[in-house]
Amino acid sequence: MEAGILYIVATPIGNLEDITLRAIRILKEVDLIAAEDTRHTLKLLNHLQISKPLISYHRHNEDAKSDILIQKLEEGKSIALVSDAGTPGICDPGEKIIKKCIDLNIRIIPIPGASAMINSLICSGMDTKEFTFLGFLPLNKKLRKRKLEEIQKSNKTIIIYEAPHKIESTLKDLKQILDSNRKITLAREITKIHEEFIRGNIDELLQNIDNLKGEMVLIIDGCQEINNEKKWDTISLEEHYLFYENQGFDKKDIIKKIAKDKNMTKNEIYQKFI
Ligand code: SAM
Prior knowledge:
By secondary structure, this protein is of the alpha/beta class.
């Protein structure tokens, strides 16, 4: 018997209109829907007037449930995998069954749709050519420190998911490592009534997050110093000096920064200015 197909179906991240015609058709056609939270998905299905058997597939039963789902796929049943919001597998269950299907040569078909990371990025105003998605920052101190160092040095746009009750402590951690001029966008409640994009540097953001509720994504601009690294050889010392002076650095810090950028000693830079 030919195995069934596993469809990875994206669902809305707020606004119920954000579901594709194809996703609706697939949800109607499959034999079974595997959902992160069956009660949550039932609301969406009721809204779409779809009635289908549901089976729970969440983080804590991923291993056991993927075996059951694989068995059904091998019996020829087609299954749609959905999460509570957005794209399954993106900070949501999905990875385990997808890997198992690949090992067993069972076909997987993505049904594209909403994801908070892409929609927050495109409205952030940050560079979208290259970016790093970090998901939720680890809570473990050592791992968190490592991630924060990665953010500090990254010349690419960084995307982070965060829960509202942890946003303040995360921004405070970011304040410890980010230059005061590094831009951040906080994207909140995307596609919902209270959708907003708060843009500024770390201090400005910290002033604006009192009692901030809802779902949030942080988009952090890449480290411009590193982005500019390659340019240093092509500009004069005077231009280099002005670049940092315009950012508010004092003479001592400017010399230190130029020395670092040009891989020279501070003394050599002083000599050149004399
Ligand atoms: N699978 C989802 C996706 O494709 O974006 C992400 C699920 S993850 C468990 C939930 C996190 O996504 C939230 O904590 C928040 O950071 C982000 N998120 C989800 N919906 C959002 C929305 N409408 N506005 C802003 N952030 C959202």
